[in-house]
Amino acid sequence: MIIALDAMGGDYAPEETVAGAVTWSQASDDVVLLVGREESLQGELVKYDYDRERIRIINASQVMGMDEPVASLRKKQDSSIVVATRLVKEGQAEAVVSCGSTGAQMAAATLVLGRLEGIERPPIVAGAPGVKDRVTLLLDVGANVDCKPQQLMQFALLGSVYASAVLGMKNPRIGLLSNGEEEGKGNKLSTETYALLQDQQGMNFIGNVEGRDLFFDKAEVVVCDGFVGNILLKALEGFAQLIGMSCLAETGQMPSLFARLDNSKVGGAPLLGINGVSIVCHGSSKREAVYNGIRIARQCVAGQMVAKQQSALRGQQK
Fold it and tell me: What pLDDT score was predicted for residue 318?
């Protein structure tokens, strides 16, 4: 498998992105294409003993800054994220992984790879740990802050396909995040989305779920807009850090649960609804997170995630 890595994206690029790619190449038979400024990447690679057949450099002269407006992407067609995404479009790579600007990555994926038919906006999916080592998928977690009911319904369908195709969950239960379990609870977006989901045949919609339900095996997939999802995800990360630090200070040990909340172990999350595999990693990712982001990309390709999304969407349109 060939995976393109935006080696210039992220707070610790290219040092940590290159390190993660080299580690992956040593543990697998995959080829990683390091996309970025060739001189910088060569300067990092000299630190390692690596297989030159499995680590290759694709030069890209420009870099999209983490705080740079997404509109700048149109003027930076030789940026590492655009070049890496184009490699997937051209069939030279099977997935792209980036720790850079989420907005830029989403824009590159949408403009270069294109959305799947029937999808208005691609969401990002992330997992919340739960009881008995279960995971609840939450989407959207930041790609789309303003959404319409139809778009949330699409998120539900895409999340369901990802849960079954990549994570092996059978007939995943779909919940709608709200401020109460009752059907009438929530704002206008919630109540209108509820009605749409309730009418979808073949979707295992169980109704509203509350924030606390994420951790207690209430549903495999929970849907919300990206504004709410991103706040919830970051609040969870911050609270986990607080509890973890408190436990460490009081007992000298970190509970094993917190390893499941560690960004470096999770790696990354796929953009769904895109005609290709594009994995979004945390901007603060270091080598272990980069390694695991590549691992997620491989799982998505091996699970035929894009083809299964297309099939599910065709079924919905009939």
Answer: 53
267, part of any domain: no
What's residue 126's pLDDT?
Answer: 87
pTM: 0.87
At 153 the pLDDT is 94
Please list the residues that pair with 231 across neighbouring strands: none
CATH number for position 50: 3.40.718.10
pLDDT at 202: 82
Q: Are residues 125 and 236 in the same domain?
A: yes
In DSSP terms, 98 is beta-bridged to 6, 280
Residues 73 and 83 in one domain: yes
Query: What's the domain range around 30?
Result: 1-119+273-318
Rounded alpha-carbon distances, angstroms, from residue 121 to 80, 188, 252, 315: 23, 20, 45, 19
Place of tokens 């894009």: 306
Strands 277-281 and 268-270: antiparallel
Beta bridge partners of 5: 34, 97
Q: Which amino acid is at 183?
A: E
Cα distance between residue 138 and residue 90, in whole Å: 31
- CA dist 19 and 187 (Å) reads 46
Report the SS3 class of residue 31. strand
Stretches in the chain below the pLDDT threshold 50: none
The residue with tokens 């005609």 is 275
Q: Are residues 160 and 77 in the same domain?
A: no
Helices and strands, counts by H and E, the chain: 10, 11
Per residue in 33-74, pLDDT tens? Answer: 999 999 999 999 999 999 999 999 999 999 998 888 888 888
